[in-house]
Amino acid sequence: MPENAVVIVRYGPYSAVGLSVEHRTFRLQGLQAVLARDGHKVVLEKIEDWNVVELVVNGEAVFHCSIQDLEFGGDGKLDPLCEEARIAVLKAY
Questions:
Q1: DSSP assignment string, 29-65
Q2: pTM of the predicted model as reported, rounded to 2 decimal places
């Protein structure tokens, strides 16, 4: 994957600590940081599927996981799912 590619991060609503189900981006911060460090442009897109995160490159879904499996906040360096997502984007071409 060349640098400066557009990566669409599609994410659904989830419930946090018993709060109402909403679209929240706190768990996406590390993922966004990891992708931005590689030089990609990250575009967030809300979807209606609960607890879902999906990365789309060139119209093709290359990675998906539960949003609640991502670490809260941070830079993504220690989150193994962020590294897995980064590798999936690199292999997208």
A1: HHHHHHHHHTT-EEEEEE-SSTTEEEEEETTEEEEEE
A2: 0.91
